Amino acid sequence: MKQTEQAEGTFEAVLSLTGPATLDVAVDSGFVRVRAGDTGKVLIRGILRARRSLFGWGGVEDRIRQLESKPPVEQNGNTIRVGDVADRWLLRGVSLFLEIAVPGDTRIRALADSGDIRVEGISGPVECETDSGDILIREVTGRVHAEADSGDIEALDIAGDIEATADSGDIRISQTVAAPVRAEADSGAISVKLVPGAGYNISVETDHGRITLPEMEWRARSEKEASGRIRGGGPVVDLETDSGDIDVA
Known about the structure:
The protein is mainly beta. The protein has 2 domains: about 1-115, no CATH class; about 135-249, no CATH class. The protein is about 5% helix and about 60% strand. It contains 1 helix and 21 strands. It has one helix spanning about 60-70; strands spanning about 10-15, 20-35, 40-50, 75, 80, 95-100, 105-120, 125-130, 135-140, 145-150, 155-160, 160-170, 170-175, 180-185, 190-195, 200-210, 210, 215-220, 225-230, 235-245, 245-249. The chain has a 21-stranded mixed sheet that branches. Strand 4 (about 75) and strand 5 form a beta hairpin. The radius of gyration is 21 Å and the shape is elongated. The termini are far apart.
């Protein structure tokens, strides 16, 4: 391998299931995408890619070859773990890009230190956390929990409870079935699209931003804070940001 080339490796695993599954996936650096696949099996495709440092490749190709020969995939009954290795040194300087297809009723927990997470078409529940990266969760019918230290969160076409927290980033939410929503951002805007015709109890607050709300039966309202009922009330929508706009439609 020439000094200018980037070391890369791949792996693939197909796992059989006997019932509803739990997927626990984590990457230090890279990308995670989980989508609905076939019933009774989990398909995992991974790409291992070197991250060059100031000190060059530093033996990263050897570590990639080791991870290729023994992929970071573990199965215990219907519980699947991906991305976790006993020897953390193997992941030094390596980015892991994962594409995973699971049965639609799989419980998902996805973590990334530095990377994006995308989950689509799962009945849930779904839990996603990233230190630095964006989170996109789409077409989930169960509960959604998402946290991003530095990055945006999108939870779209969700038919369940939603809880989203972003330290530095925007939050965008839309529902297909009325359910409780809790969203909090330190520095970022919050946008929520409610289910047309459904009733909600709404409470919003921003320290530095504007508030846009639909026609409501107000309990209290000021320039930076408001609460009330829409269409007679229903699930609670609680939104708060320190620095950013809040838009509810």
